[in-house]
Amino acid sequence: MSVPAEPSFRDSVDLMFNRAVALMDLEPGLEEKIRVCNATYTVRFGVRLRGGIHTFTGYRSVHSEHMEPVKGGIRYATGVHQDEVEALAALMTYKCALVETPFGGSKGGLCLDPREYSEEELERITRRFTYELAKRDLINPSQNVPAPDMGTGEREMAWIADQYQRMNTTDINARACVTGKPAHAGGIQGRVEATGRGVQYALREFFRHPEDVKAARLSGSLHGKRIIVQGLGNVGYHAAKFLAEEDGAKIVGIVERDGAITSESGLDVEAVHGWIGRHGGVKGFADGTFVEDGAKVLEEDCDVLIPAALEGVINRDNVSRIRARMIVEAANGPITAAADEVLRKAGTVVIPDLYANAGGVTVSYFEWVKNLSHIRFGRMQRRQEEARHELLINELERLSRDKELGWTLSPGFKEKYLRGADELELVRSGLDDTMRTAYQAMRKVWHSREDVADLRTAAYLVAIERVSASYRAKGL
Ligand SMILES: NC(=O)c1ccc[n+]([C@@H]2O[C@H](COP(=O)([O-])OP(=O)(O)OC[C@H]3O[C@@H](n4cnc5c(N)ncnc54)[C@H](O)[C@@H]3O)[C@@H](O)[C@H]2O)c1
After folding, report:
1. pLDDT-derived band of residue 288, with 50, 70 and 90 as boundaries?
2. Is the ipTM of this structure higher than 0.85?
3. Which residues are in the Glutamate/phenylalanine/leucine/valine/L-tryptophan dehydrogenase C-terminal domain (predicted)?
4. With bands split at pLDDT 50, 70 and 90, how would you rate the model's confidence at 393?
5. Residues of the chain with pLDDT > 70: what percent?
6. Which atom of ligand 1 lies nearest, measured to the CA of 295?
C-alpha cells in the first residue's frame, strides 16, 4: 500500500478536520472560520539564572472563542513551536465540543527541558511566563484557563495560580485562572488521574459494545487483553495502572525515552513507575526484558496500543508494521494524517485523541466550576440527596419497626446510606458519564452513516456540528 506524504502536526489536524467537513453541509466560509487559529502569541522573556540572563521562548495560541473562556494545557518541552501549539489548540476546540465542556480551544508551551532546571529556577521561569501571559489576558478565569500538559503538573499550576492572584488581588475568582492545581490550593480530587482515568473509561465503554469490539477483530472484555503503552508519565501511568489493577488487562510492554520493557506475563506498572522515578528510565528494571530500540516495541503484536507520550509516533515510516488490533490515542496527535489513512484502510480501530484524552479537560471543568462557586464540591449535591433519601429511609425504618416488612434494616444502615458521595466519587462518576455519553454520540454517527468509516471522522463530525451551531446561534 502506498503511504501518503507526511504533513506537519497542524496540517495533520486540518486534514482530519477537512475529511469530516467534506461530509457536512456547512455554510460557505464557516468551515474556514472554524478551522483557522484565531491568534498565536509568541513571547520571549529573560530570567536571571546561574549568574547570567537566559532568554526563553513561549507561546499561547487561541484557536476558537466560540465559547469563553478558552481552555488548554501548557507544555514544557524543548520541541515546542508555533505549529505544535496551534495543532494542540485546535484539538482542544474539538475535544471540548465533543465532551460538551463549555470552553473554546487554546494551548501554550515553553521551549525548555524541565529536567535541566532546579525547582527554584523552574518556579522563577514559570512565574515570569505567567506574568507575560496574564498581562495580555492569556491567563484569566473568564478568558483563558490553562492546565497541565507534558512536562508540567500540579506544582507549576500552583505557581501560576499564585502569581495570577498576586497580580489580581481583588479578583475573588482569581483561583479559577488555571486548573490542575493541588487539592489543598484550590484543586479538585481526581484531577491528577483524570486523563488516564478517562482513557480507562473510554476503553470500558468501547468494550460494552460487542459490535465495536468485533470491528477491532477482538472479542470478550478488557480482562486479559494485551496492552502496550508508550510514555509512563501522568497519562500513561494512570491509564496503565487502572487498566491492569481494575480491569485485569495485561500490560505487556512499556515504551519510554531510553528504551522499552516487555513481559508476556504482564508488567507491574507500579514497580516500573517507581523504577523510572528512581533511575530516570526503564533500563535495568529486573522483571521484564529490556529493548534498547523502544520504538520497535510499538510494532509488536498486541490487542491495544496506547501511545501516551508524543505526537507523530505512528507515521508513514512505521505504520505498515503496526500490528495492534486497536489504538487508543491517549497522547495528542500520536498518529499522523498519513498513517491514519493507512490504518483506516487496514481496518485498525482508532479511538481518537479528541475523545480518548478528554478526561483531563472534563475534570478541569469541574475544578473551574468548583473555584467559581466557592463551595466545597459535592456539598450542595449531598444536601439535596440527603433530604430526598432521608424521607425514604425514615419510612423504611418505620415499616421495619412496625414489623410491616418481612425484614429489618441492619444497624447503622441509615448513616451509611446517607454518607453521600465524597468529592472523588462525584468527580469519577461525572467523568464516567461524560466519557460514556460522548462515546455514544460518536458511535451513533459511525454506525448510522455509510460515508463514515471510523470513529475519528465521527468525532470530528459531532464536534464541528456543535461548534458551528454555537457560531450560528450567536453570530460571528
Ligand atoms: N496531562 C494531561 O492532563 C493531558 C491531558 C490531555 C492530553 N495529554 C497528552 O498526553 C500526552 C502525555 O502527556 P503527560 O501529561 O502524560 O506528559 P508527562 O510529561 O507527564 O509524561 C510524558 C511521558 O512520556 C515519556 N516520553 C517522552 N518522550 C518519549 C519518547 N520519545 N518515547 C517514549 N516515551 C517518551 C516521558 O518520559 C514521560 O514519562 C501528551 O500528548 C499530552 O498532550 C495530557
Report:
1. very high
2. yes
3. 188-475
4. confident
5. 96
6. 32
**Would you list which residues are annotated within the binding site for NAD(+)?**
195, 234
Q: Which residues are catalytic?
A: 107
CA–CA gap between residue 311 and residue 293 (Å, rounded) = 18
Whether residue 464 contacts residue 24, with contact meaning beta carbons closer than 8 Å, is answered with yes
Output the residue whose Cα is nearest ligand 1's atom 38.
233
- CB within 8 A of 277, min separation 6: which ones? none
Per DSSP, the three-state class of 146 is strand
Buried b (16+ CB within 10 A) or exposed e, 80-106: bbebbbbbbbbbbbbbbbbbbbebbbb
What CA–CA distances, in Å, run from 351 to 246, 330, 450? 20, 9, 19
The Å distance, Cα 66 to ligand 1 centre, comes to: 28
Backbone angles phi, psi at 42, to 5 degrees: -110, 130
**CA distances in angstroms from 136 to 143, 233, 461, 466, listed in the order given:** 10, 31, 33, 29
Q: DSSP code of 230?
A: E
- Cβ–ligand 1 distance for 87 under 6 Å, the answer no
Q: Which domains does the chain have, with CATH numbers?
A: 39-192 (3.40.50.10860)
How far is ligand 1, taken at its centre, from the CA of residue 283, in Å? 19
Q: For ligand 1, say whether the CB of 40 is within 6 Å of any of its atoms.
A: no
Among the atoms of ligand 1, which is closest to the Cα of residue 232? Answer: 39
Is 332 close to ligand 1, i.e. is its CB under 6 Å away? yes
Cβ of 309 below 6 Å from ligand 1: yes
Which amino acid residue places its CA nearest to atom 33 of ligand 1?
256
DSSP structure class, residue 26: P
Q: Is the CB of 234 under 6 A from ligand 1?
A: yes
Beta strands 52-64; 104-110: pairing state: antiparallel
Total number of residues shown for the chain: 476
